[in-house]
Amino acid sequence: MKIGSRIYLFLVFFFLYAPILVLLIFSFNASNSTSVFAGVSLQWYRRLLHDSATLQAFRNTLVLAVSSSVLATVLGTAAAVGIDKMKKGPAKTGLLATTNIPMMNPEIVTGISMMLLFVFVGRLIHMDAVLGFGTLLIAHVTFNLPYVILTVLPKLRQTDPNLAEAAQDLGCRPVSAFFKVVLPSIMPGILTGLIMAFTLSLDDFIISYFTSGPGFQTLPIAIFAMTKKRVKPDMYALSALIFVSILVLLLLYNFMQRKSDERARRKEK
Amino acid sequence: MNETAIIELKNISVTFGDNQVLNDLNLNIRDKEFITLLGPSGCGKTTTLRIIAGFIDPDEGEVIFDGKSVKHLPPHKRQVNTIFQRYALFPHLNVYENVAFGLRIRRIPEKQIKETVEEMLALVNLKGFNKRNINSLSGGQQQRVAIARALAVKPRVLLLDEPLGALDLKLRKDMQVELKNIQQRLGITFIYVTHDQEEALSMSDTVVVMDGGVIQQIGSPMDIYNEPKNAFVADFIGESNILDGNMLDDCLVRFSGARFECLDKGFAKNEAVDVVVRPEDVDVVPVGQGQLKGTVTSVTFKGVHYEIIVDIGGFKWMIQTTDFHAEGSNIGLYIEPDAIHIMKKSEYSGMFGDYSSFSDEFDELSDPDPDEEEEA
Amino acid sequence: MKRHSTSRFNVIASPYAVWAALFIIAPLIFVVYYSFTDASGAFTTENVSALSKYLPTFLRSIWFGIVATLICLVIAYPTAYLISQKTENIQRTMVLLVMLPMWMSFLIRTYSWMAILEDENGIINGFLASLGLPRVHMINTSFAVILGMVYNFLPYMIMPIYSVMAKLDRSMVEAAQDLGGSRLTVIRRCIIPMSMPGVVSGITMVFVPSVSTFYISQKLGGGAFDLIGDVIERQFQQSYNYNLGAALSLVLMVLILISMAVMNRFTGDEEGMAI
Known about the structure:
The complex is a heterotrimer of chains A (269), B (376) and C (275). With 269 residues, chain A is mainly α. Chain A has 11 helices and no strands. In chain A, helix 6 (133-158) packs across helix 8 and helix 7 (163-169) runs antiparallel to helix 8. Chain A is globular and about 75 Å long. The model of chain A has no long low-confidence stretch (mean pLDDT 88). Chain B has 9 helices and 20 strands. In chain B, the strands form 4 sheets. Chain B has a 6-stranded mixed sheet, sandwiched between helices. In chain B, strand 11 (241-249) and strand 12 form a beta hairpin. In chain B, helix 2 packs parallel to helix 4 and helix 3 (110-123) crosses helix 4. Chain B is elongated, with a radius of gyration of 24 Å. Chain B starts with a strand and ends in an 11-residue tail after the last helix. Mean pLDDT of chain B is 88; it is low at 360-376. Chain C has a single domain (54-268), classed as MetI-like fold (Orthogonal Bundle). Chain C has helices at 14-35, 46-49, 55-84, 88-99, 106-117, 123-130, 142-167, 170-178, 183-194, 196-212, 215-220, 228-237, 242-268. Chain C is globular. Residues 269-275 of chain C have low confidence and may be disordered. The interface between A and B is medium-sized, with 21 and 27 residues.
């Protein structure tokens, strides 16, 4: 039974990592094939460093991910605080239901629905190339918002409802009571939302595909354009780099969490 | 304590939805007294406290602080501070910073802050806890931090909302003594909310018994216990046998089929009244010697005394006695005139005071839950 | 009754409310608007009536989506259960391992499958050939497309099921055993019914992207297995027939809403449709 379950888990993880293994190996391929290995070389990594278009796309992706996740976090946190304070009723229910739409809808529908809006508005204001950084930013903020709101809301519900009152009681104005007391206590939720929004934005292809224009390419879109033709191992090299950096970040995060858990456990005793 | 009122509540009424939480409430709170709002869950005691703190605007009525109306003064401008039910300590700040919070808002120089915080932590016996994380403290310690935090800003009045509700019994008793000591040492007014009658009696100068958004009685703990105004108060504070009676004359009352001398007068001839007899005030005597006789239906050993339920003409009395009486035995009962307390009939008449369905367990189960206080 | 302290705070949800109205609600209205107009903006039902032509595509998408979802469920359920039985630290590491692939471009990972499955130079076929075994045709088959879906969306099935199972009260399972339940009975009577919320959200999270995908079918199906996502994508990126594309999307959206409703109806009964 035990052995069986181990083999089972191994197979599942093997399945999940097989293509990643393949691309890691072939990123060191000496030839430009993505299926026949012809010896080890670092040429694709070297080439990547000189590929200005890809590097530009990478920079664009970062700029977009940072700006959209920060904007979504600010807007979403404010929204969560407001929703939390709203009394039960149609306004609250409606707002929460609307928040769920981008999470329920297929991404392709979200993408084309926003594209239709942008194109229509573009036509109204006689602007042909309406799709670009602005529309991408709007699209990314929009699909990030629900994730931020839905991570901050439960945090707010967990905090002691008297916290803000206690601060006012000690002499804080209502607004500064919020910033001094409520905001710090929901900070972990806000940070989780921010990180989630950042990674979602970094990774998004489908919605970006419909809301971006030729003037502003993100990495997933650049990759898509390349996979239309024949992919060279330089894309593999890029993915390998991304994979390794994410791996390191996650291990670090995991390590830190384990540490803080241990500290918390020690305190309980 | 002195006689000038520091807080006056005048004709306060509050409604949440269709629920009348406070109904034309009037209360004067004297400076430097320890006053307790006592009542079952939902009686309006926490709402009263929140009105004084400024978290709720009453629909009607005035709140006067030191002779001036504070009706439109927001909480952060009032000279009162609150100890919240679940303490509401700031989880992102350590003990020192929690206590210093109100002082920093007031932009007090750092040196003075340090002095005050140390002084306050010493006052609540938390010396050396400065750097501790709030979440690493026990419930009792968190409670002390909350007290230190509120007292650090030197309030004229401290509001305490069931502050001991989350603590276990032993800790609770210790904190009761400590809170009373702190109040006397600092000489400030404490307004204390609880549903625990024992707590109220042992700590307070004045007890305000509330039910249904109305004050039932205001008085010293002794007055409340010895001279309850109606059946609700008599039942809520301690144990009481409450019987229907008739005032035959001044100082002469008839109940349970017998005549008794008492000390109460001023009632109309033959007026129907409620008669209160506390369980510890009934003497057990041999059958035929007392005014009443009955059959013991149950006996519970309580340590100091036995608690026996006695059936007298179908009405079950609770009696506390130091002598053992077996179940089923017949006994006589004697009641001294000063053990009988006569009350006017009220809306609560007939609702309390019969021990026919009494059991300890039931009493515990029906103990009001401190968390169930009204919230809008 | 009024409260001094909190009343003004719900105002700060209003920027979001405006944003949601502009960029969540309004775009959906445009989908409906474009569905029922032609290129000049005049009202027409032509787009909707043209949809019958795409019925086979819709049916294939739904069929592939259902198959991929079921396979994911069958693979993910034991996986989630086994992970939830590990110690806390191992659980955490395994969860990270499940989620890690999701952070890599799914385009590249899908492309990498091409290299694995190819006929001539494919890694599997190369391996078979080196053993002297006959080659197997895998790429550009419906198998490859469904494999791509299962591969890409499997973590979305494992995660919700796992998080429900991890929260299951151990003492409850012990209580069931204590009352005489065998290991299998405990799984059937306790764990499966109680993990249903995770299963339901897993099914949703796999079915929706499977039905609407367009990249996987292009790369691994070689264009021979047009799915509804492919058709929609072409209307917007190649033939520029936004109106038809909008109509197709509208139907897709309605279709998914109906499937959700049907599934909720099914799982609404206490004796859920476990596996």
